[in-house]
Every structure is written in structure tokens, then in C-alpha cells.
Amino acid sequence: MGQELAGQRALVTAGASGIGRVIARRFAAAGAKVFICDVDEAALAAFARENPGIATTRCDVSDVRQVDAMFAAATASLGGLDIMINNAGIAGPTAPVEAMAVADWERCVAVNLHATFYCTRKAVPLLKAAGGGSIVNLSSVAGRLGFPLRTPYAASKWAIVGLTKSLAMELGTAGIRVNCIQPGVVEGDRINRVISAKAQAHNVSFEQERDAILENVSLRTMVTADDIAAMALFVCSAAGARITGQALSVCGDVQVLQ
């Protein structure tokens, strides 16, 4: 791996596990100075032990006061900012809209959408001071497809696309590029739990349920966190210097969500 991000300073939210962890490590390996936050203290502690060169802090990014404090710590550690990765997100509830608890809707939108705004409003002055930079927001294929019973998740991920495209237009003259990534079915423990629950509900095997999900993917495959990190690295590097305002699906071409 080269030094595509040598000298760059990057902040990754929800960076202690999952996609965020892989992005943080990939960016550090590419020469960036990286700072992460996460709400999970145990995951943060484990990440810090394994990655002593990456600074960490706890933050619930749906709380604007915690975001403000986190940015103070990140700025002190990094000395500025060139890359903002808004990775934090939750799955939210699964329920018919008429049965959905208001608190569950609000929590999903707060973490997936409000937090992206809270972090971006703090990142933009730093990126402008650096003479430009890159913002990457995590959307989902649920940000381009309907997702029955998962309305708050889909609504928040569609909103991320609109926010991304609007910010790209607003910030382009400042040399700030804004893109979002739309992961598909990402392999790992989370999707395995989903498949197991669906398999039990449908009275079929894990393998049968997995294959049924992948029938709606043109490549008949899941994607990995490494695939998402590779796209993030590309759009933040010099190779992606003319890419902005894009919703970039990394999904094997998912056709339907169910």
C-alpha cells in the first residue's frame, strides 16, 4: 500500500469497530494522521491497544455538545483537518409505520442524519482553513431504494444523499469535495444475525436465507468493509480530486431490499 494520504489529517466517527475501524486503519496505512471517536468505550479501548498511533475519544455524535467537545480534542490532536468521514449510523427499528415508536424513529434519525450535520458544521471551518479537503458521508443502498418496515433508516439515508449533493455545491468554491458511499449487504456479524433471525422466521436454513437475499444482488455477493474503505480512500486521495457531489454505491448492484 502506498502513501496516498501522506500529510493528511482525518477524523472518522464511529471508528472503533466495523466499517469505521477499517477506514481508520486503511487511512493510517496510507499515511494519514487519524483521529477517531466512538460511543462504545470497550471498543475504543480495544482499538487504542491495537492502534497506538491513532488517537481516540468517546463521543455520542447525536449529542451536539459532545460533538463540540470531540472536535476540540480532535483539533488539538491533529492540528487541523483535511478529511471528515461521517461514518456513524445505526440500523434503527424494524416495524410497520403505524406501530413504530416515536422515540425509535427519533433516535435513528438523530444518529444517522443529525450527527452528520453536527460534525460537518464543525469540520467545514477547519477544512476551509486547510485550503480545502474532503467529506465522505455514509449513506446506504437504502438511500436509493425503498426499504419496507425500515422507514426511519431509509429516510435518513436518502437524506444523506440530499445533504451530500447540496454541500458539494455549497462548498465546491472552497475546494471542499463532498461525496457519500452507499454500502450494500456488508458481510460480518451484523448481517449474520439478521440472516439467522430471518431464517428462523421463514423456517429455512441460514444458507437458504442468505442465498435468497443475494438473489437480489447482480454479483450474488456481499461486500466487505475493506471494499467501503477502498472507495473512501479513493475519493479522498489525489485520484479522486475531481469527484464531488456523488452517491457512490459499493454493493454488487443491489436491486431490491426486503
Provide key terms for this protein.
258 residues, alpha/beta, Rossmann fold, 7-stranded parallel sheet, 8 helices, 7 strands, globular
Helix share bin: 40-55%
Strand portion:
5-15%
* Poorly predicted spans: none
CATH level-1 class of the largest domain: Alpha Beta
Describe the structure.
- The protein has a seven-stranded parallel beta sheet with strand order 3-2-1-4-5-6-7, with helices on both faces.
- The N and C termini lie far apart (37 Å).
- It has helices at residues 18-29, 41-50, 64-78, 102-129, 151-171, 189-202, 206-214, 225-236; strands at residues 9-12, 33-38, 55-58, 83-86, 133-138, 176-183, 247-250.
- The longest helix is centred in the middle third of the chain and has 28 residues, at 102-129.
- The protein contains eight helices and seven strands; from the N terminus they run βαβαβαβαβαβαααβ.
- The chain folds into two domains: 9-185 and 226-250, Rossmann fold (3-Layer(aba) Sandwich); 187-222, no CATH class.
- Helix 3 (64-78) packs parallel to helix 4 (102-129) and helix 4 packs parallel to helix 5.
- The chain is α/β, with parallel strands linked by helices and 258 residues long.
- The protein is globular and about 55 Å long.
- The protein is 47% helix and 14% strand.
- Helix 4 (102-129) links the parallel strand 4 (83-86) and strand 5 (133-138).
Briefly characterize the structure.
The protein has 258 residues and is of the alpha/beta class. The chain has helices at 18-29, 41-50, 64-78, 102-129, 151-171, 189-202, 206-214, 225-236; strands at residues 9-12, 33-38, 55-58, 83-86, 133-138, 176-183, 247-250. The chain has two domains: 9-185 and 226-250, Rossmann fold, CATH 3.40.50; 187-222, no CATH class.
